[in-house]
Amino acid sequence: MLKQDPAFTGRDDVYFYLGESLIKLGRQAEALPYFEKLIDEFQESVHLEIARKRVEGLKTQLQANKS
User: Fold this and answer.
1) What dihedral angle (degrees, nearest 10) is formed by the CA atoms of 20, 21, 26, 32?
2) CA nearest 42: which of 20, 10, 18?
3) pLDDT digits (tens), the chain, 67 positions
4) Is the CB of residue 55 less than 8 Å from the CB of residue 39?
5) Which domain holds residue 20?
6) How far apart are CA 56 and CA 48, in angstroms?
């Protein structure tokens, strides 16, 4: 959907739910860029606060896994 219709107005929803799905699959490193895109591109998104929390948590978790 993101490639076929770049003007799709629900991209923030797509980014959010892709990120959430990847987390549930245990693929945190792959989820992080979707939340970051949401934050960067959609300052008025209903998902913005949750996305910020996810980014913070994911970065902390990924950093801890590297140690």
Assistant:
1) -50
2) 10
3) 777 877 788 999 999 999 999 999 999 999 999 999 999 999 999 999 999 999 999 999 999 988 7
4) yes
5) 11-66
6) 12
Vertex 28, ends 23 and 29: CA angle to 5°? 150
Of 49, 14, 46, the C-alpha closest to 33 is 14
Residue carrying structure tokens 């770049």: 6
Query: Is 42 contained in some domain?
Result: yes
Tokens of 45: 């998104």
Q: For the chain, give the number of residues.
A: 67
Taken in order 14, 6, 1, 26, is the CA torsion positive or negative?
Answer: negative
Q: What domain count does the chain have? A: 1
- Asked whether the CA dihedral 13, 19, 21, 23 is positive or negative, the reply is negative
